[in-house]
Amino acid sequence: MRKVSLRNLGAHKLRLFLTVLAVVLGTAFVTGSFVFTDTLKKTFDQIFTGDSQGVDVRVVAENQASLGVPLDLADQIATLPDVRDSIKYAGGQVILIKDGSAVQTGGAPSQGQPYFPPEAAIGQPIEMVSGEPPSREGEVIINTSGMERAGLEVGDEVDVLVPNSGTVTVTVTGTYDLPVDVGGFIGVQFIEQQALELFSDGDHVTRLDLAAAEGVSQDELRDQVAALVPDGFEVLSGSEARDNQQNELEQNLSFINYFLLAFGAIALVVGTFIIYNTFAMIVAQRLREMALLRAIGASRKQISRSVIFEALVVGIIGSVLGLAAGVGIAYGLRIVLDATGLGLPGGALALEPRTVIVALAVGILVTIVSAYAPARRASRIPPVAAMREENSSASDSTRARTLIGAVIGVPALALLIWGTEYTGQAGALRVGIGAGLLILAVLLATPGLSKPAIGALGVLSKPFGATGKLARTNAIRNPRRTAATAFALTLGLTLVTVIGVLGNSAKVSIDDLIDQGVEADYVLSGPQMTGVPGVVAPAVERVRGVEKAAALKIAPGFIDGQNVTGTSLVGGVDGVLEVPMIDGSSDLDGRSVMLDEATSERFGLAIGDTASIERPSRDGTVDAEVIGIFERNSLTAAMVLSDEAMDALIPAFVQTTIFVMVVAEDGTDPAGLRESIEQAVEPFVVVQVMDREEFKNSQAQQINLILSLLYALLALAVVIAVLGIINTLALSVVERRREIGMLRAVGMHRKQVRRTIYIESALIAVFGAALGVALGVLFGWAFVETLRDEGLRILAVPWGQVVLMLVGSAIVGVLAALWPANRAARTKPLEAIADL
């Protein structure tokens, strides 16, 4: 039987290719995601190892929002007898400005750092490539790749923008090399004293690195230092510091990994329908062959095992090819991201044994599971019944499946609707479970739905006369096959529609929120990583015609040990933002705070109560009076702090400004004022001046960027679905070879045969697309309802996109049918009729 199976695969090479291709696409995406993230992790591990090389103990503040490690504490620690050497590190983000333009890093860090000469460095000192180290204020050295990216040479002058200190002009005295190529990374090293002035308040450093005296272990020195350090600081051994950095990286990369794996899973699920459909059709076409094998002594187990063995062979071939394709995808993804300027570290691709095992296991298991049901069904058909001609196209009743689908679908729909009564994670979880069950219900009921649905769509085929009627009949003759073909497209377009509804609703909701909530005339923004430099707001407020330039800052804090994100608007929200108040006042003065309704209920805080807000550095609390309760919105976070409360919570030097809201004086010429503001922020280069319409467009662009990425990844599922239609039609042509021959014999022309296949494919594609769009709109509405507290208050269905998808599906159906239709048209009547 194994020999029969292998020969059968070899005799139908096209069928084998189409089935293998479905497995390849799914496993390639899973493999590519693992290889890509493993490569990044491996390279970053090397970077972290170099960063902490020679460090035996590291002292850092528990929270990055604090000023860092006090210098007096650092000096005290450095005097411990078991400390051989110490380094006080003060560094932070910078932006390199060349010829009036910011040097783009493509998302890689651009860091200002202190330079330590070899005699003062802990571990391996940096390797100078050219020039001399900095020796005085105003001199810097920059890594070689950063110099090349900026187009600089030794001796050039360049401006360096430090977000909280302003812009300094420096001279490049030399270049140095990094142990690992870090893509677009730029490292600007100043003398130690200037780094302290630029990146701290002068009394703190970012971290303290220690080297142990000879014979003292890392753990011993760590314990000594920990006994001296007060609460609010972490004391880590060198190995613990490296582990922390690596764990943080893994958490950051896990999002990318889960994101890519989710779409790999979608591709596999869609591919599963194609593989299942393919094996179901293969079994249907081979019923007579299997009946003959049963008649000459083959047992039921041998028949089912032969089909599963074929699936095993297909799974192995597809998984191996998918593994190779996944490595290619990871390589191509890195090339594409590098070409777009995204600064990623270089290094060889990492193919871990885990990746190989997962890819092979997933691909093989999916294929075998997909083939199990057809194999079992084939083994249960009696030999004599299978030899009858009509069995080659017979189909089991769909009544039972439709009934089961209805039994699952009704409570699933109820759960989905019930989930919309909740918001946040609770609502999303209920809606997600309901949506999953409803998809399962639709999958079971699709064969029963296909007959009435395609019957109704048959109106579209009426203009084509007899060929249109024949196409409609062919589409509903085998409901299981039609359903499996259509559902692959249904699943893909369901996801596309859900994302479209969420994205469009987000854009419309944000537009409405800005129209209703932003009273400022102009909004100033900066890079996402750094925000707006802290010195911008005071500079703009000095511009003639500006009544107010309020910096919108983010304020992380804790209430009762639970994280609560807040914002602060310098000078208060009045006249700048329209905050929808429920109770109390928005007149923030003294040490006061406003809370949104959910946060006030969560902590039992009312007007007049005192909120004890724990500082991010965990070195005390800030007591602020609750003066107002407002509706939750996307312009402010859960709490809005007064200026005094903000400064008490987070030191001014490390506060991050998200936007600067500019209010014009009455009677000021808008065009003239904008020009004056642009001149004021010109030295800061990275600051963008926007009116309200431009601000809305900028927010929409961010959503469009995310949507484009999601659509690009979901396109894989749609491509697989299209391949499934091609696969099904090609096999259907083989299955109906004698029928097509008969039609040709009684006078049907080749172009009529092609037209019949085209129309049949278009009807199946439109049926699957319509079902997917309907589910997508329903799920999109439900998820928008659960996100109403996050600012998505307006449901906006992209009807233009919906119509485009339906029309596009009909076109895709015709295109998918081109090759199968031409193959059918070439059928020779007499040979087909004589074929047994």
TrEMBL record:
What GO terms fall under cellular component here? plasma membrane
Q: Where is this protein chiefly located?
A: membrane
Q: What are the UniProt keywords, alphabetically?
A: Cell membrane, Membrane, Transmembrane, Transmembrane helix
**Which residue ranges does the record assign to the MacB-like periplasmic core domain?**
17-227, 482-679
Instruction: Output this protein's name.
Output: FtsX-like permease family protein
**What range(s) does the ABC3 transporter permease C-terminal domain occupy?**
262-383, 712-829
Q: Which GO terms describe its molecular function?
A: transmembrane transporter activity
Q: Which InterPro entries match?
A: ABC3_permease_C, MacB_PCD, Macrolide_Exporter_MacB
Family, as annotated: Belongs to the ABC-4 integral membrane protein family.
